[in-house]
User: Fold this.
Amino acid sequence: MGPTVKLDLTTILQATGELQHFLDLGAVRLRAEGQLPEEASEELIFSMADELEDHLRMMRDRQGSASIGDLRVWTRAWIDERLEVLARKSVQGGDRG
Assistant:
């Protein structure tokens, strides 16, 4: 069994340059959810962070290691995929005037 390293998501997002993209995704998700109490909004953002951390851990485990470049690619792909899902839901949800 290889060494385990605790992922520090904030540090990863800063080091990869993806922090703003993650925050933008959070803003889109919050808008899509409508008015939420502060506690629910925080829970949504923390659940996104947990999902991303799980994704990065899974990708690292699959590959055996991870460079900053790998983390950037994996993070951006995860963010882009979620933005696509939100866009599809928005269209399907009837953003028809």
